[in-house]
Design goal:
alpha+beta; SH3 type barrels
Length: 145
């Protein structure tokens, strides 16, 4: 297991612990994390993304079209996670091995990014890759001061 997988698992466990802590205590910004990266600070709520299920490339388009027709919301992150799973499955078959499919991305919602020049960007969703995380605060911090 490489350092990235260990870091991702720790962040997942920290998220579970934080949600339990927030549920027991009166926390105003439940579920928020602040990540320190070389490029700046990223704050948001960690969300789980389930891979979009499909069998092959042609089935992918058909299933996505059907989900859209049925009014089932599918995010671009779910589509990407489904494609990533199929890519790993194909590599497993080609090289007769089993690759670790532990996703190295942290999906966030309600995100505030403060870059190294102190520019602030607020966006709905963001994907942070684990190898960019150098520190974590299990809270939403106030940088208005």
């Amino acid at each position: 297991m490489d350092i990235i997988n260990i870091k991702k698992r720790y962040i997942k466990h920290l998220s579970i612990a934080k949600n339990a802590f927030d549920a027991v205590n009166e926390v105003t910004d439940k579920g928020y994390f602040t990540f320190y990266t070389p490029a700046g600070i990223i704050m948001g709520k960690i969300i789980d993304v389930e891979p979009f299920p499909f069998e092959d490339q042609s089935d992918f388009v058909d299933k996505f079209a059907q989900a859209s027709e049925d009014g089932k919301p599918v995010s671009v992150y779910e589509l990407a996670a489904g494609l990533q799973d199929k890519f790993l499955d194909a590599l497993d078959k080609e090289y007769e091995t089993k690759l670790v499919s532990d996703n190295k991305a942290i999906h966030l919602e309600d995100v505030t990014i403060i870059d190294v020049n102190k520019n602030i960007t607020e966006i709905n969703t963001f994907v942070l890759f684990v190898d960019q995380v150098i520190g974590i605060v299990p809270a939403k911090l106030n940088f208005n001061n």
